Amino acid sequence: MQTITKHPNGDKLKVSAEARKGLETWLNQEIEDCFAARSNLEQQWQENLRLYEGEPKRPVRNEIIENAPNVEVNISAIAVDSIYSQVIDLIYSISPLVTVRAVQGKPPIWIEIAKSVQQFVNWVATNEARIRAPSENSILDCVQMGTMAYYIPWTEKIKKNDVQKVVDSGPAVISIPCEDILVPGGAFDDPQKTRWLGLRFYYTQSELDAYVARGKWRIKGVKPAGALDWVRQKREQLGRTNSNMKSGQSRAARYEIMMVWCEYDIDGDGIDEDLLVIYDRNSRKILKEQYNPYDNRPIEVGRYQLRAHLFYGISVPEMMGQFQNQISDTWNYWTLNMILANARFVVTKTGTFPADQKMWPNKNLEVDDINDIKFEQMGNVYSSGPQSINMGIGLAERRVGLNDLTSTKPSAVMGSRTPGITALTMVQQVNKRFTAAFDSMRMATAGAVRQCMFRYKEQLLKGNKKIEQHIMDVIGEEDGARVIAALREPDLEESIHIELTASSASINKEADRQNAIMLTNLLGTYYQKVLELTSIAANPQTPEAVRKVAIDIATKAGEIIDRTVRTFDSIRDPSTFTIEIEDVLNSS
């Protein structure tokens, strides 16, 4: 079975040979400038991988003695693994994974529509996009390399035996390595606004043939890539594997193909067109060009630590690298010091021993005069090594905001008589240092799920009846009809919000349950009081002054409840839970 990307068919783009040549020249210049501009960054990515894997910076140390201790104390891996696990737990420990809600101010029917969309989004995220597998790779990339990306195309799965047929189609969420995201040097952080953005793929000849048949690519003259990108090579080297790239025109050869979304004036009218271009880097040829068929580029990007006004982010190993190098050097020197402090060398009078004399434990040495031989210690014991290592770890912890490197047991922090609610608060509280990083990864993952809905919207607007039937088969005819109507709305994004249920770095299941109970009790009391005030206001025998006071009290209570409910992380639409008493009275 073969899976290929199927871009929507846009308006036909008529391009002259001269215009295409100009676009090829411009793209080649931009892409090569991109690689040149980020060469130092790619070196840092390789260093991040080395720091995480714990590969010594120098293969062999011959300082002081041959084959001196050479250990890489990879504190970066401790921090990366801890943060990565926290993010995965934050996103996937809460059910449902995705929350869909109607935007405040929309008609009540949108609440029912949002519930139907909720069912379909949950099914797509779990069963079709299978969001967890790509998100695990991208989130690890974000923590380890500083930048993560998802590519969300519409894909078709093709099976061929005696006949060839499409057996399945739908949106896919693909994790893109950071080295395969291409933007101009110095580009800002928004992937939707940069003047061009490219994704790199290594396709085989059979994959190219499939795109020729179904995507009408022009592959005549394409050239295989000589080697993979050097960051990818580093990944594979540290993973003890390789892609076994084949040269020449064999079926196993790989082609370095780029999908580039760009703004370029291809018709010479002075206004840039929004284009999608398929480009082969090695032959410098355009395989296909068309108008951009997407309202938004099908790419979502996140960063661990944002570099202001730049595209690529800062990673945990990059933050800790200088401390890890210092700690590793100190560790090796301290270990060497212990070896030398426990070793001895022999001072003898000339001619006492032959030049090739060997020493070993329990050996009997015979000398004419005991004063002719003397054993000396090769080094002294110094206690400053552990102190220096602990200081380095402390600085590294402060740089990333993590205390897992030297953390103590919870009992040592809270004691044995800590009240239950206090202990719960302390356990669930996560360092606010991670809020920006966690939110970036969470929003990128939510954006990937949201983009899946855009892919369905594009198919429905094309009039694809199979997709309509597919939606109804998944969630039923009534809910399916609501989803189809919602996806056809031009202002879908302004009508419903799709976000991951996990909304902050301080949520956990127990705290969330306690908050839900607290909120239920609060609202129960509020509803009881509003019911009593409504009875008073609706009673025709109630004096007018008392009626106005009752309405005023209910209105102000609703405002207080609205402000209180907004403080709960799990609530995004507090107006859903408040009652407008005047509207109730006017409708009666």
Short description:
The protein has 588 residues and is α+β, with helices and mostly antiparallel strands.
Separate helix tally: 18
Based on helices, strands and strand pairing, what is the structural class? alpha+beta
- How far apart lie the N and C ends? 62 Å
Portion in helices = 40-55%
Strand line-up in the sheet with most strands: 7-8-9-10-11
Based on CA inertia axes, which overall geometry fits?
flat
Biggest β-sheet strands, sense, barrel:
5 strands, antiparallel
Q: Count the beta strands.
A: 15
Report strand %.
5-15%
C-alpha Rg (nearest Å): 32 Å
Average pLDDT score = 83
User: Which stretches of 5+ consecutive residues score pLDDT under 50?
Assistant: 503-507
Topology:
Blueprint: E1 2-5, H1 17-37, H2 39-53, H3 75-92, E2 98-102, H4 109-128, H5 132-145, E3 147-151, E4 154-160, E5 164-171, E6 174-176, E7 181-182, E8 196-203, H6 205-215, H7 230-238, E9 255-264, E10 273-280, E11 285-291, E12 299-303, H8 316-341, E13 344-348, E14 373-377, H9 384-400, H10 410-414, H11 420-428, H12 435-461, H13 465-475, H14 477-487, H15 492-495, E15 496-500, H16 509-538, H17 544-565, H18 581-587
Antiparallel strand pairs: 1-4, 2-15, 3-6, 3-12, 4-5, 7-8, 8-9, 9-10, 10-11, 13-14
Describe this structure in words.
The chain has helices spanning 17-37, 39-53, 75-92, 109-128, 132-145, 205-215, 230-238, 316-341, 384-400, 410-414, 420-428, 435-461, 465-475, 477-487, 492-495, 509-538, 544-565, 581-587, and strands spanning 2-5, 98-102, 147-151, 154-160, 164-171, 174-176, 181-182, 196-203, 255-264, 273-280, 285-291, 299-303, 344-348, 373-377, 496-500. The protein has 588 residues and is α+β, with helices and mostly antiparallel strands. The strands form 5 sheets. The protein has a 5-stranded antiparallel beta sheet. The radius of gyration is 32 Å and the shape is flat.
